[in-house]
């Protein structure tokens, strides 16, 4: 008993001995590093705010910067030959709920049928779904659509592998452009007529990217949060990059490529989980230009379950970091593009937006600031923990004005998701075990409108509560709550207000009470 008592009594003394020479300097260093990253992120956001304001004021729309005359369809001599042959690829994997939506929308495009080739690249492993997709393709083929249903013996390369395999067919050589739509994307009939002219009349443009429009943004609070983040990406980040240096990351869908540019860049590669970004950077390094059309919108679906969203964010965060690791020296050594474009790709595109933005959000606001509660010698200036994040948050709100009243919830949710994004970013940079993990984002399509009335399904949903627990989030919630109670009792900066709210957000996600669809009678 005396030994145990002596050991317990010695803990405060040991803490005091380690605190001054070790803990305080390390925590001050961490604060300095996080403040530096916050300033860099703040300057990046301010830069984009200034540029996008200039673009709007000067009305530098794509149709003013590039020629985009409509393709004539009333010339009896040329007929349909005035239209280039376009290949459309629809990669899918076990897409039971949405396969009809994408195939139907693509087959309904306003384009001469003899100048359109549709490929449904089905990597499904469920034989029932494969048969359903095949029958749907046959149905449209009987209506006169040039549509082919293609399967592979394996899923090597995942989406990149399927797209690459589709490009190997002989008839693709007749196609000048290729449009790509994921299985949940539904382009409007005039999509090709609004995008193809930019490629036809401007030989230096390789890619035309359209904006995503979300059909289920109002499904739940989690989808509203996603809409806010993605709307900023499209309305600001993509617009700014397109206007300043004609480069941005291809979003993987709802875009049209020049086939010759894809081939010159080396085609599709499966070395990372962001094959779209990989191709875009390689094409940009060859000197090709990209155009973003914000007024051309394609309907799509947001993941409405937390599990699906978490896997998606892992891929979207891990892939760019891993690609940065693999392409950094290739970008530096490139001699075809200007030094300014290299700086934009390395610093703005990769370092700030894909790495620092994720890491600083979690480490600073969820670890470092709470940790300083126990070490009052380490002070964080108000401009670093209040003013800068407030301005960044307000700048992010411009993409979705209708959700301005949800900013507070968006901050808390983004901080929670930064846990997974930071982990994924580090995995990608270190090329650890899950660096090439590919989990297809679950799409629910019309199933979102279905409600179960059976008691058994409600009971089954209740039993799944235990399966929805997220231990890591619960651990962070416990840490934040502990910091909050300590600050309430001994602190003077009132950090406990933020810590309790943020801890509650982690706790709610930890028990799986976010983005779930509960059957109702």
TrEMBL record:
Major subcellular site: Golgi
Catalysed reactions, semicolon-separated: GDP-mannose + (glucomannan)n = GDP + (glucomannan)n+1
SUPFAM superfamilies for the chain: Nucleotide-diphospho-sugar transferases (SSF53448)
GO biological process, one term: cell wall organization
Keyword presence, Cell wall biogenesis/degradation: yes
Location of the Glycosyltransferase 2-like domain: 177-369
GO molecular function: glucomannan 4-beta-mannosyltransferase activity; mannan synthase activity
Enzyme Commission code: 2.4.1.32
GO cellular component terms listed in the entry, alphabetical order: Golgi membrane
Pfam families: Glyco_trans_2_3
Membrane topology label: Multi-pass membrane protein
Transmembrane segments: 22-43, 355-375, 387-413, 469-489, 495-518
Keywords attached to this entry: Cell wall biogenesis/degradation, Glycosyltransferase, Golgi apparatus, Membrane, Transferase, Transmembrane, Transmembrane helix
Subcellular location field: Golgi apparatus membrane
PANTHER family: GLUCOMANNAN 4-BETA-MANNOSYLTRANSFERASE 1, GLUCOMANNAN 4-BETA-MANNOSYLTRANSFERASE 9
Similarity-based family: Belongs to the glycosyltransferase 2 family. Plant cellulose synthase-like A subfamily.
The name this protein goes by in its record: glucomannan 4-beta-mannosyltransferase
Species per Swiss-Prot/TrEMBL record: Oryza glumipatula
